[in-house]
Write a structure and sequence with these properties.
Layout (H helix, E strand, L loop, with lengths): L15 E2 L2 E2 L11 E4 L12 H11 L4 H14 L15 H13 L5 E5 L7 H18 L2 E5 L3 H7 L3 E5 L2 E6 L1 H8 L2 E8 L11 E7 L2 E7 L5 H11 L2 E8 L2 H12 L2
Helix pairs in contact: 6-8
Length: about 260
């Protein structure tokens, strides 16, 4: 994160966008990249948010028309109208993160680096930040590279995952392919008309059971879902069935176990 965003000099590496290098190469205030990192804030602590934005406009030499257009779009999308004239030290963590993201985008970078963008945020702020990141990527064409330990971020945002362990790249691909390799187990929650006979479903492990509800765990590589549902229907009168994939953190743990990390 530090090297591609320009905070740390790279020893022998490059980052390409459409075949062209976008690493800052120690040129101050390169406009190709931007980063939001908790330890290196763009905003000045004791001044209103708008003052920091205007200073960043001058640092990045952003034309007035471009600055006004970007500020208007970011203010509306991230709902910053009530925050612009508030000193940064008076903002909540979620408010400050939204303002930091806007600060990093005022100069219109092609690549945005985000370091744990939802850490410590409440549920509403997390949803707002994730929705904005999706919009930024899909509608504005900005490439977003984020580091996160929040599995919900991965599920909500990531089309491509690079999993790193002990300094080594362990996996590079989609979440769907990773699930197909390590996440074949599913959790089945079945609700049915009262039945006092415990379920006996071949190939499934009973996690919990009651006369009206059962939770089963099944490895779909061994027992197809259709076969399991047929067995369920033969034993009880089903009212509702929910099928949930294996949580992402368990999928990743499976990869770690395979590699003995």
């Amino acid at each position: 994160m530090s090297s591609p965003s320009g905070a740390l000099a790279e020893d022998d590496a490059d980052l390409l966008d459409a075949g062209s290098s976008v690493l800052p190469r120690r040129i101050p205030h390169d406009r190709a990249c931007a980063a939001v990192r908790h330890k290196n804030a763009e905003l000045w602590w004791d001044v209103p948010v708008i003052d920091s934005y205007e200073l960043l406009r001058d640092i990045y030499k952003v034309p007035d028309a471009v600055y006004r257009a970007n500020l208007s779009m970011l203010t509306e999308t991230l709902q910053l109208q009530q925050l612009l004239h508030t000193p940064v030290r008076q903002l909540s963590l979620g408010q400050r993160m939204r303002c930091e993201i806007a600060a990093s985008l005022l100069h219109g970078p092609r690549i945005l680096f985000l370091d744990e963008p939802t850490i410590g945020l409440d549920a509403v702020s997390k949803l707002a930040v994730r929705q904005f990141i999706r919009t930024l990527n899909e509608e504005k064409g900005v490439t977003v590279i984020l580091t996160t330990h929040d599995m919900s971020d991965i599920e909500a945002l990531a089309e491509r995952i690079l999993l790193i362990g002990k300094g080594t790249l362990l996996y590079d691909g989609s979440l769907t392919r990773l699930r197909g390799r390590f996440g074949t187990r599913r959790t089945i929650t079945a609700e049915y008309s009262p039945s006092h006979r415990p379920l006996d479903i071949p190939g499934a492990q009973t996690v919990s059971w009651s006369p009206e509800r059962a939770i089963l765990s099944v490895d779909t590589s061994q027992t197809p879902i259709a076969e399991l549902l047929a067995s369920l229907s033969a034993q009880v009168e089903l009212a509702d069935v929910a099928i949930e994939p294996m949580p992402v953190d368990e999928v990743i743990a499976g990869l770690y176990r395979e590699l003995r990390l």
